[in-house]
# Entry
Amino acid sequence: MKAAGLALLLLALGTAEGAGQELSGRVENAGHGVAGVPVTLHRVTPDSSGVVAESRTGADGRFEFSPPPPAASGFTVYFATAEWQGVRYFGPPLHPTDGRGDYRVEVFDTVAANAEGSSLRVVRRDLIMLPEADGGWEINEVLRVENGSKRTLVSTGGMPTWEFRLPAGAGAFEVGDGGIPANRIQRMGARVLVSAPLPPGSHDAVVRYRLPRTRSALTLEIKQPTRELGLLVREPSPRLRVVGLTRVADERLAGERFTRYTASQLEAGARVRVEWDGSAAPLAPLTGAVVVAGLVLLGGAGLAVRSERHR
# Structure
């Protein structure tokens, strides 16, 4: 787990105090205990994180740990993971003072992604356009995909569990700090391929790339139905013409002013195009990182609600 992610987790959970006590739990599949599953206990403090105990479930799927005491500051979080059918599943974060008699880690049967790809839905995709000093643009994207089935989608035969497309001309591609591990996301031309297992529920991917000053437009082709698509453009920006999205508000985020455009219920085959003329003042590097982190933590819509709006 990366340091930035740990800091955000700890801030979200708050401070807790208390001595260690027995942690008992159960690994379940469809409500039934699963025997023989390796279970690992992790501890997170302001100064360190790592494995503190390992076990294996009994015949009824139950396991038990004796967690080490919390950090001297009392700022400590525990969580357990279970490995089943080649996939790691995470239990909920736990304070030292939380009850410890009914901890659950849910695991799921697996299925090849290409056999059940229709269960995936892009529930939100946000693009943050940030001007660069040389006239180009840095583009940050936060994508949230949802597996609506009861099974974990896995990669087989070299096929990705999920993929999406970048606009033409995208360069300097990087993977950011989202819920999907960076080493399971790779670019192949205009395609971005995800090979990580996708359990039921939602998953976030964060990528960034650059459009050079020689380009004057961004065209985004929608390959999968997308529930919500958002565009945030830092102001002042060049004069824009946006096709396929509706301007809804000006927002102040991380001390900067952005214009937001949105669209909903986009069908496969839809296209969004942004054209511009000229360049804008460059953005402080930290601002983009703060906006992206907010989108990941709150979801795109949540960030809009909590920002300062100017209509």
About this structure: Confidence is low (pLDDT under 50) at residues 1-20, 300-311.
